[in-house]
């Protein structure tokens, strides 16, 4: 069957979309066209969270059950109107010293990426300042449940982390990872470097591991994780990225990394949310993570 192509105009740019009926989530029949539609509909709240952050994409050209690859450099054929920024990447697996990152600043760029089956969107905790990495404006505490644990255990740890961060003058908000874990996000004033923020996050993780040794580990070793929640403090390193708020995830169903209420966290009733549910909640309540924005 010949490849289906359709031309559309978005933000004044002409895009050629292909194979909109291709199923990217086989378990539920969710198509590439529906992925694009989701990103268009969520763009108003998603774009501010992506603004000025160099983007790492995870592409699934054959759907979430097929192969995938991380992509940091702009792909071949990137339209000239797509914003890119060349940044140093010492020690990159590609062997290059610099890469040209895509920076999403329009619905057209979102649609272009979704058409490339860039299902997952990952960003650092810092924004570009005059074309260079600035100090982080976000702290992320990533809660990764080990074997034998899940979101209920993450909720217990999240409440403990919240109390510690609030004691230190921060105001964390919670979101699901869209898979099995959670993240807490807190706005920073940009006064500290990534190394300093990482050191602080590590201290928080180690303190909680000492206080809750049967539930928390701050060490990365896999053999230490069964029955515990790993607090991954390393996500604050300048070179690391975290799944962006409102990004889709490559799960069996089209789940989203979405905000959750603290009341649900305290009850331990947090669960993954799918694209349609997230859009409905946004239409009713707006973006609870907007307070994290500059």
Primary descriptors:
alpha+beta; 6-stranded mixed beta sheet; 6 helices; 20 strands
Give me a quick take on this structure.
The protein contains six helices and 20 strands. The chain has 294 residues and is an alpha+beta fold.
Description:
The protein is of the alpha+beta class and 294 residues long. The chain folds into 2 domains: 5-124, DNA primase, PRIM domain (Alpha-Beta Complex), CATH 3.90.920; 135-240 and 256-286, Alpha-Beta Plaits (2-Layer Sandwich), CATH 3.30.70.3300. It is 27% helix and 29% strand. It has helices at residues 32-50, 107-115, 151-167, 194-211, 262-267, 275-285; strands spanning 5-10, 13-18, 23-25, 30-31, 54-59, 69-71, 84-88, 98-103, 118-123, 126-129, 132-136, 138-145, 173-176, 182-187, 216-217, 229-232, 242-243, 255-256, 259-260, 273-274. Strands 5, 6, 7, 8, 9 and 17 form a 6-stranded antiparallel β-sheet that branches. A 6-stranded mixed β-sheet has the order 15-16-12-14-13-19. Helix 1 crosses helix 2 (107-115). The longest helix is centred in the N-terminal third of the chain and has 19 residues, at 32-50. It is globular, with a radius of gyration of 19 Å.
How many strands, what sense, and barrel or not for the largest sheet?
Answer: 6 strands, antiparallel
Number of domains: 2
| Computed CA radius of gyration, to the nearest angstrom | 19 Å
Q: Uncertain spans, ≥5 residues at pLDDT below 50?
A: none
Please report the total strand number as a whole number: 20
Q: Look at the helices and sheets and give the structural class.
A: alpha+beta
Strand content: 25-35%
| Second rung of CATH, namely the architecture of the largest domain | 2-Layer Sandwich
Ends: how far apart? 48 Å
What's the total helix number? 6
Helix content: 25-40%
What's the order of the H and E elements?
A: EEEEHEEEEHEEEEHEEHEEEEEHEH
Please state the average pLDDT score: 96
């Amino acid at each position: 069957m010949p490849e289906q192509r359709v031309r559309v105009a978005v933000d004044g740019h002409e895009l050629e979309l292909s194979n909109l009926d291709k199923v990217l989530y086989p378990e539920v029949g969710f198509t590439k066209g529906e992925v694009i539609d989701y990103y268009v509909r969520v763009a108003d709240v998603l774009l501010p969270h992506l603004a000025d952050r160099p983007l790492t994409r995870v592409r699934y050209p054959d759907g979430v059950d097929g192969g995938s690859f991380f992509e940091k450099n702009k792909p071949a054929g990137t339209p000239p109107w797509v914003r890119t920024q060349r940044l140093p990447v010492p020690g990159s697996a590609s062997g290059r010293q610099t890469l040209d990152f895509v920076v999403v600043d329009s619905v057209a760029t979102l649609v272009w990426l979704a058409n490339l089956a860039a299902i997952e969107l990952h960003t650092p905790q810092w924004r570009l300042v005059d074309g260079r990495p600035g100090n982080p404006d976000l702290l992320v505490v990533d809660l990764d449940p080990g074997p034998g644990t899940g979101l209920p255990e993450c909720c217990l740890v999240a409440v403990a982390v919240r109390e510690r961060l609030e004691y230190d003058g921060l105001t964390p908000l919670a979101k699901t990872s869209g898979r099995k874990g959670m993240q807490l996000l807190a706005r920073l004033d940009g006064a500290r470097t990534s190394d300093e923020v990482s050191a602080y996050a590590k201290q928080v993780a180690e303190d909680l591991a000492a206080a809750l040794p049967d539930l928390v580990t701050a060490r990365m070793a896999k053999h230490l994780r069964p029955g515990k929640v790993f607090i991954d403090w390393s996500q604050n390193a300048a070179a690391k990225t975290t799944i962006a708020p409102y990004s889709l995830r490559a799960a069996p169903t089209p789940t989203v990394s979405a905000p959750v209420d603290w009341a649900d966290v305290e009850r331990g009733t947090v669960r993954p949310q799918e694209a349609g549910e997230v859009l409905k909640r946004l239409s009713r309540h707006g973006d609870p993570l907007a307070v994290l924005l500059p």
